[in-house]
Specification:
- The structure is a single chain.
- By secondary structure, the protein is α+β, with helices and mostly antiparallel strands.
- It has a single domain, classed as Lysozyme.
- Helix content is 60%, strand content 11%.
- The strands form 2 sheets. A 4-stranded antiparallel beta sheet has the order 4-3-5-6. It has a two-stranded antiparallel sheet with strand order 1-2.
- A hairpin with a 2-residue loop joins strand 3 (67-70) and strand 4.
């Protein structure tokens, strides 16, 4: 019988393999749906998720839905339940403005009201919907997807937003080249 830790690792590896297989259709369907609903390019949404929660699997960068950033430290969990438990503990110990959750790493201090419960931020479809809504709002203010990505990361701008815009631009360019060539990123 596997220990709970090993079971969690085995589950995480199986999920990563499944995500890798789904990533052959790029952007994956969930990103296409959320982007369509918010009227944004699906490549922009996918690039943000890669930038925010990406993890290397078999040489490929894939977004991970149960990612938390707590006070500047990233954590990845094998299951939504484990991530939810850690999220609730983090919110009890830290200011919500120091906690980001999910594929788009939504900050719960600034955007927690967009969810019915904190753990809803770990629902990949809901997280992508909120990420897409935020990107659309920032794009409406800037008229440019790269600037919108910078504001998504840090609305106040400055060096952190500039650094983020550069990383986002690299992700987006890499995706666009991959799609054009018909190869996974």
């Amino acid at each position: 019988m596997a220990t709970p830790r090993l079971s969690g690792i085995a589950l995480m590896l199986a999920m990563l393999a499944m995500l890798a297989a789904q990533a052959d259709e790029l952007p994956p369907p969930a990103y296409q749906l959320a982007a369509h609903d918010a009227d944004i390019p699906s490549t922009v949404l996918f690039a943000i998720a890669l930038q925010e929660s990406g993890i290397r699997v078999h040489g490929r960068l894939l977004p991970w839905p149960w990612t938390l950033n707590i006070a500047g430290t990233p954590y990845r969990f094998a299951t939504r339940q484990a991530a939810c438990h850690a999220l609730l503990q983090a919110l009890a110990r830290h200011d919500a403005k120091r906690v980001d959750a999910g594929l788009g790493q939504i900050n719960l201090g600034y955007h927690g009201q967009r969810y019915s419960t904190p753990c809803e931020a770990l629902d990949p479809y809901r997280n992508l919907a909120v990420t897409a809504e935020l990107l659309q709002e920032h794009h409406a203010a800037t008229g440019d997807w790269v600037s919108a990505a910078g504001r998504y990361h840090r609305a106040a701008g400055g060096t952190p937003a500039a650094r983020y815009r550069a990383g986002f631009s690299r992700q987006l360019e890499r995706l666009l080249v991959s799609f054009k060539q018909g190869t996974p990123p």
